[in-house]
Design goal:
- The protein is of the alpha/beta class and about 180 residues long.
- It has helices at about 15-25, 75-100, 135-145; strands at about 1-10, 35-45, 55-60, 65-70, 135, 150-155, 160-165, 170-175.
- A four-stranded mixed β-sheet has the order 1-2-3-4, covered by helices on one side.
- The protein is flat.
- It starts with a strand and ends in a 7-residue tail after the last strand.
Length: about 180
Amino acid sequence: MKVDFRHKNCQVDDSVRQLVVERLSHLGQFLDEPISAETFFEETSVKSADNRIECEVTIKSHGHVVRARATGMEKLQAFDRTEDKLRHQLERLKGRLVARSHPHHRTVKADLAPNGESDTSMIARSKSFVVAELTPDEAAFQMEMLSHSFFLFQNVETGRSAVVYRRDDGSIGLIDTEDPVLS
């Protein structure tokens, strides 16, 4: 597998490069002949020492692209975290590929619907709950307390459903619904 290295605001020495190439080659077991991998290290301007180095790895194979990003105090710590995410994603991809090519590995789908058509929905689990009436700040606090990546709530300020979510840059975003336009 061909591994390209890029870096910004830092240097990547040969020992780190060699270790990264070796460990990425082990991840190649999940894909048939991975074509290439691109590794990007960046020293960020974040004041926190825990997130000083960011590592992003993109693996390309025949028709598949898998990308993971993580941060750490040092290059190898950031790469370790990224490698764990990549391994998880590649295991899921391998499972899907095996299920697609081996009928005995496929999950059992529902039989024909009453109207004679096949049920092709991909919903694996359904859940219902009472939506709390909160302000966006309170909802963001609840999301943090639950360690979730998003939180659905009834916005007290607008009276409509809304979602707060964790953005990739660490900040919190708000999605608010609008009233339907009547024509």
